[in-house]
Structures are given as C-alpha cells and as structure tokens.
Hints:
- The chain is of the alpha+beta class and 274 residues long.
- The chain is 25% helix and 24% strand.
- It has helices at residues 13-66, 197-201, 206-211, 264-267, and strands spanning 107-111, 130-139, 145-154, 159-160, 165-169, 171-180, 193-195, 215-222, 236-238, 246-248, 255-262.
- Strands 1, 2, 3, 4 and 5 form a five-stranded antiparallel sheet that branches. Strands 7-6-8-11 form a four-stranded antiparallel sheet. The chain has a two-stranded antiparallel sheet with strand order 9-10.
- Residues 270-274 have low confidence and may be disordered.
Amino acid sequence: MNLPNFKQQGLSLVELLIAMVLGLFLTAGALEMMLASRNLERTTDDLSRIQENGRFAIEFLARDLRMAGYGVQDNGAINKPFYDGNCKDADFSPCTDDGGAAFSDRIAIMTNPENDQDCTGATVGINEQIANVYFLGPDDTNNNVMSLYCRGYNIDADDWISVAQPLVSGIENMQILYGLPVSPTSPDREITRYVGADTIHGDPNSARLWSVVSTVRLSLLVNNGLENGNNDTATRKFVLLDAPEQTFTDKHSREVYRTTTAAYNVLYNTAGTE
C-alpha cells in the first residue's frame, strides 16, 4: 500500500523573516516620505506667512511714506515730512527715534490727511496736522508676537488721537535710514548719504535737515507671525542696515525685506531750500 506524497506548503521561517524585513523597510520608507511631506508643508506655510507679513508691512509703511509732509506747509509750519518733536508719553520722546543697537527704530510721518483719518481709521479734525507713528511691540492678543503698530498723534493738540493698533504680526525688527543731500540749503536734491534719526537729532541744524529728508530706506526682519516656528535650531544671522548682526537659534524661519521710498512732497517742494 502506497502512502500519498504531501508537498510542503506555506513559508519557511527564513522566508517569513525576509518578508518581515522587507515590510519594515517599506513601512519606514513610507513614514519617511510622509514626514518629509509634512515638513515641506510646514516650511512652505512658514514661507508663505513670512512673505505675506513682509509684503503687507512694506506696503503700509511705503504708502504713508510717499505722502509724508502732505499738506503740512499749508498750516504755516516748516515743511517737515517727519515729526521730530516729543509725543506725550516718555517712551515716545522723540516721536521719530533711532532704537540704537539692535533695538527697532520708530518713525512719525507727518501729514494733513485728505480723508481726515489717522492710520488706525480714527477721525481727525479738518486741516489738523497729525503724525502717524509706526513702531514695533508685542501683541498681547497674539501670544505677544512682535508686530508692526501704528498710532495717530495730533500735533496741534499735542495728544494721541487713538489707541495703538497692530497692523502686521511677525515683524521682529525695523531699521530706518533717512536720505539727505550734501547740504540742507543746496538746490541740488541729490541724495549723498543715509543716516539714522539719532544723527539728525544730534545736528545743530536738525530742523532744517528733517525738512529735506526726501527718501527713506527701510529694512524689516520678518517671521511667520506665530508663537512658534517650524524650522530646526540651526544658527541664523541677519544684518539690517546700520544695526549690528543679530543671531538666532530658535526654530523660526526669517527673511529680511528692504525698500527705499521717496517722500514726493519733499522732492517736489522747494521750501526746504529757501
């Protein structure tokens, strides 16, 4: 009597181990691709936020800078595009100031607004001289993220018009230089130098110098506007205009945005050279 032959079926132990190892490799590869995709998404989102914050901040500042000094001479004042006096609070004296070292600068743009509103939308009187004061500070409604603020100041009444309003989040540092001709009395308005507000304040002829500032150079250090970043902790260094180098080791991605804007009301007005 012959017994039937049974062939071995299923996987051997070696084959099973090989299959498990291959499966682990495939799973690890899939996880790596998923993590890489997630990191890329976060990085892309960070860069998108940074670009948006930088663009809006430059747009707000450049738009007001182009109108610096508008209508000011109509009230009998020297045609100064920027307010070099003291605002009411001690922290804003002078209102246009150089922060010094790596601290952010502050700028008070003088105007007689056609729409009778300051930079926050608050109503001002007809033909009143105001200064839109731009500065940086922590936004307590957004985890104290550094932001670009603006606040209107009534120069005639020597008082604030409105409460400061955050305009753009994620603006960590703002440096400003002012373009000057070779001489404040020179008929040639060609810009020969860029200096900080402290240099103009310290000049014996500072009032005349402020009246002939016709261009402004801005540099902003911008992050994503969130409390936390999504990058690694590698050392990153940035230089903004005349400020010293700044070094960061946190997870925030940053970009530097620069622009040079003309104050057209100074460029096309000869009052400063008389």
